[in-house]
Design brief:
Layout lengths: L14 H15 L5 H11 L9 H15 L5 E4 L13 E4 L3
Antiparallel strand pairs: 1-2
Helix pairs in contact: 1-2, 1-3, 2-3
Length: 98
């Protein structure tokens, strides 16, 4: 007998929906936003329901994957350079000009 998962009725947030929600927020903002600002706005608008404890980490990973794996990505990463990588807290995201 198969056992029904406890999470069967919950909506699963997938990377694609994170990116769609981020695009909607960035399009409306018309200015670069940090991942935390993007997630805060997504939750305010009810665009995405997440189950995890770190939705900002999930969003950050989804955006980084998108820009590194897809040269034609609609997202642009803006940051201030630090000694080895971007200065902490300086990373912002925006949409490419359409």
């Amino acid at each position: 007998m198969k056992r029904k998962s406890q999470r069967a009725g919950m909506r699963k947030a997938v990377a694609g929906s994170f990116l769609e929600a981020a695009a909607a927020v960035l399009r409306a903002a018309k200015q670069p936003l940090s991942v935390v600002e993007i997630i805060t706005e997504i939750h305010k608008r009810g665009l995405l329901t997440t189950r995890g404890r770190t939705p900002s980490n999930t969003m950050s990973a989804a955006l980084y994957r998108e820009v590194t794996r897809n040269p034609a990505s609609r997202f642009v990463r803006l940051s201030e350079e630090g000694p080895h990588r971007a200065r902490q807290g300086s990373v912002r995201w925006k949409l490419k000009a359409e």
